[in-house]
Amino acid sequence: MSPTRMASEHKWIYITSIVVLVGLAIAGLLTYTQQRATNKAYAKANQLNDALVAKGFRPFNVNNIAQLLGTNGGSVCADPNSSLRRGLWLTQLANGAGGPGMRPIIADQRILQAGAEVVRVYCPDKLDAYQRKIDDLKTGNTVRG
Question: How many independent structural domains does the chain possess?
Fold first, then answer.
């Protein structure tokens, strides 16, 4: 059997090996990129959790923070100072009643500062505008313990 005939008979083995190696390289690259993003999300989640604990909050589940806010703050940092987001946010600072019974409340300063801490960790470039918005609100010491 001649060497050229033997090489042509095993050509499919070489082609299959190359395709498998390229596929494994692509899968490895994608896995590495995803793991790097996951590590960054957990690092930011730990940073936020530590900052909130330092302000007197109970520790949060870091897995939940990482999944919710990811690496870029998710919807919190999309546009934290937009009129729509502010309107929705102020609606949430109410007594919980629906319809005509709904009344604004005096929010606790710690709750507002927790929101500012999220912005500080995930989108610090938007913190000054956000801080000005929450400084305009009437707050008090309304949460016990």
Answer: 1
Any domain includes 145: no
Q: Given CA atoms 137, 142, 143, 145 in this order, what sign does their dihedral have?
A: positive
pLDDT per residue over 66-115, tens digit each?
A: 888 888 888 788 877 777 877 777 777 777 777 788 777 777 788 888 88
Model pTM greater than 0.70?
no
CA angle 142, 143, 144 (to 5 degrees): 120
DSSP structure string for the chain? --HHHHHHHTHHHHHHHHHHHHHHHHHHHHHHHHHHHHHHHHHHHHHHHHHHHHTTPPPP-HHHHHHHHTTTTTHHHH-TT-HHHHHHHHHHSB-S--GGG--B--EEHHHHHHHHHHHHHH-GGGHHHHHHHHHTS-EE--S--
**Residue at 21 is within a domain:** yes
Give residue 119's domain range.
3-140
